[in-house]
Design brief:
The protein is an all-alpha fold. It has one domain: MetI-like (MetI-like fold). The chain is built from 13 helices and no strands. The protein has helices at about 5-35, 50-60, 60-95, 100-105, 110, 115-125, 130-140, 150-180, 180-190, 195-225, 225-230, 245-255, 260-290. Helix 3 packs parallel to helix 8, helix 8 (about 150-180) packs across helix 10 and helix 10 packs antiparallel against helix 13. It is a multi-pass membrane protein.
């Protein structure tokens, strides 16, 4: 028979396990089942089509275009977020340690609701009435269509994403830096180490696992980017800024092709699971080696 401690563990774990199954595993299994059908709002007679939806995805040029757009947004925005977050964290550790109000200013983008922030950026980037073009015109430059062409619109999305999520990386790395033993830093300074030597040989090696965590979390989130694209450009002009996740939204919500959208979602989930697994294995391997 189970002892009292074992029964208590089962009692506490059963509700959360059941909730996990209901909230995650069941919807995922249902999503997979739907992906093997031709279910759509315009199709009253749903039938199983097996892998036909998946085959159609890889034959659609919009799939490859949306993947390329997703990669562009993810690679550039995540790189800028990690780079700027690291620079800010190191700067506040070395130069602005006691200026708490500057840290608060840096974290302002995370304090506001993302949707409200994105609508503010949409108004500021407006070609005719936006404040950014107004400031540019003061200095005698011509107006820029920030959301009107593919290259400029993608650049605007990347910069807005960077502005919104750099504070997340900054907070994570600042917390990691605060855990470093001051005696190690002071000993290095006594030996003549300057800020660059401290960053290269003490701070960055210690921050490496935290950088990987920030990288994984931001890649997973950026690859699912939807709200910035929906609010700023609605995938336009045309489909020039439609990411893969936005394409799933169009297919499933606007066009009501549930089977096809489910297949697209399954592909995205599998890819993100593979990415997160690879980085997780790397973290575990480095932890064992150290």
């Amino acid at each position: 028979m189970l002892n009292r401690r074992a029964r208590a563990k089962i009692l506490f774990l059963t509700p959360i396990t059941a909730l996990l199954l209901i909230m995650t595993i069941f919807p995922f299994v249902y999503l997979i089942l739907i992906s093997f059908t031709d279910r759509a709002a315009t199709n009253p007679n749903t039938k199983i089509v097996w892998f036909e939806n998946y085959a159609e995805i890889f034959q659609d040029h919009q799939f490859y275009q949306s993947v390329s757009i997703t990669l562009i947004i993810t690679i550039f925005s995540v790189f800028l977020e990690i780079f700027l977050g690291l620079i800010l964290a190191l700067s506040f550790t070395n130069l602005y340690r006691n200026l708490w109000f500057l840290r608060a200013i840096v974290m302002i983008p995370m304090a506001a609701a993302p949707v409200a922030t994105l609508f503010n950026w949409r108004y500021m980037l407006n070609t005719s009435t936006g404040v950014i073009n107004y400031i540019i015109s003061i200095f005698g430059f011509s107006e820029v269509g920030w959301l009107d062409s593919k290259t400029v619109a993608l650049t605007s999305i990347i910069l807005v994403e960077t502005w919104m999520w750099t504070p997340f990386v900054f907070i994570l790395l600042t917390a990691a830096l605060s855990s470093i033993d001051k005696n190690i830093v002071e000993a290095a300074q006594v030996d003549g180490a300057n800020r660059f030597v401290l960053a290269k040989h003490i701070y960055i090696p210690i921050l490496k696992p935290f950088l990987i965590i920030a990288l994984v979390l931001r890649i997973l989130d950026a690859a699912k980017s939807f709200d910035a694209i929906q609010i700023l450009t609605s995938g336009g002009p045309g489909y020039d800024t439609a990411s893969y996740n936005f394409l799933i939204y169009l297919n499933g919500i606007q066009y009501l092709n549930f089977g096809s959208a489910a297949a697209q979602a399954v592909i995205l989930i599998i890819v993100l699971m593979i990415i997160s697994r690879r980085f997780f294995n790397r973290l575990v391997r480095e932890a064992v080696e150290n």
